[in-house]
């Protein structure tokens, strides 16, 4: 049975591509021929220049995502789109075969495309990877040294094979398929990080919401094997460019802006895995399914439960940084915030929790006044400081300065370097300088318990209330006397 080299030729992505071509948000993404050539060289895909990219576009091996013109034009294979900008087209041409017996793919003389300017999504580097992979002519590093006449015979043999392939239907089908695969990733990319709740007054969000519904309808009509096969093609190409799978996973935990600055072939691998992720995010979001992550679909084989053992989670690219600490530690890295804050009481505890937020990795410890040792009290604090220093954890201590023994103990500990960190002594007390008299009185009378202590639910609200009171009453200096 013959394998279909262009299995999704009948899946029409033109409506989505047309919408993207007319969208103002795509302006910052598109590259001209010179910039795409520079990107390819930066990513180690080979030597390309502006003329090379333009030639690949003219013969349809690399389709453009937006083509612009100074005036309306009729060019076969280029469809006009509605746009508030200049005259725009999407490129739906099929790749052109090399004319039999001709020395070049490019036609002689001027063509209709010469009056147009092509622009490309960065994902089109996938096509450049295949141009390099399938059209390269090379010999071994030592062929010239060992047997110089052999260079000619090797090149002649490769030329014969390339001539036969590029004149065939298989060549056209394959490059048409690779262009379609790129276009699937490109139409999915805009919705990968859009917010689920939209601002009805923001035209960009409204456009993305409407576009997402169109994309959802398109995704529902795809053949069942389209998404997994295309994503796997990107992952396998990434592995071909760079085989360091665990390093790729580590780098993909970086912010996308930083990841896009990576150069060389591993940078190209990052871009291809990003294409696979764009499709996954769009499908998961709009079809409410869960797909394998990108490191699961390449050449690497995973045993059941192995990802959880290695990463600490089965979904590494959706996990919180704290969950991945063991994985980072296996590389000798520590991605956690190594800081511990010690506070004297409930007021300071509520203040820091309010400022740091619920997602902070900084540990806040309430000493409840037990700082100096008295009958064993305070011993745990000293032990904890010593443990912090031994583990390289920064200790930040925030106490009131109204107790001389506490101040003396902390200054002695700092001078002897028995802890690593810093301390802040509040003078006047933290409460007196940040809260008004009514704010201080209320918890004592109606704090929710017989002892007058604040409840856990109430503590995080104390600081914002105190901040509002400060604005109303001023700093405590005006009433402290």
Describe the overall structure:
There is one protein chain. This protein is an alpha/beta fold. The protein has three domains: 14-102 and 114-238, no CATH class; 304-334, no CATH class; 339-478. Helices cover 47% and strands 8% of the residues. It contains 20 helices and eight strands. It has helices at residues 14-21, 33-42, 50-58, 125-135, 143-146, 149-166, 169-188, 203-220, 226-241, 245-251, 256-259, 265-287, 306-311, 325-329, 346-356, 379-391, 404-415, 430-434, 437-446, 459-473, and strands spanning 66-69, 78-81, 87-91, 117-119, 339-343, 363-366, 394-400, 421-426. The protein has a four-stranded antiparallel sheet with strand order 2-3-1-4, covered by helices on one side. Strand 5, helix 15 (346-356) and strand 6 (363-366) form a beta-alpha-beta unit. Helix 9 (226-241) packs antiparallel against helix 12 (265-287). The termini are far apart. Mean pLDDT is 83; it is low at 447-452 and 473-481.
